[in-house]
Amino acid sequence: MLYYEKEIQALNKSKIKYLVVGGAAVNFHGLMRLTRDLDLMIDINEDNLQKFVSLMNKLGYGTKLSVEEWKGKVAIAFRHQKDDTKQIDIFMKNPIDFGDAYKRRKVFRTGKVNVVCVGLEDLLKMKEIAGRDRDLIDIGYLQKYQREGKI
Question: How confident is the model at residue 67 (pLDDT cuts 50, 70, 90)?
Answer without folding.
Answer: confident
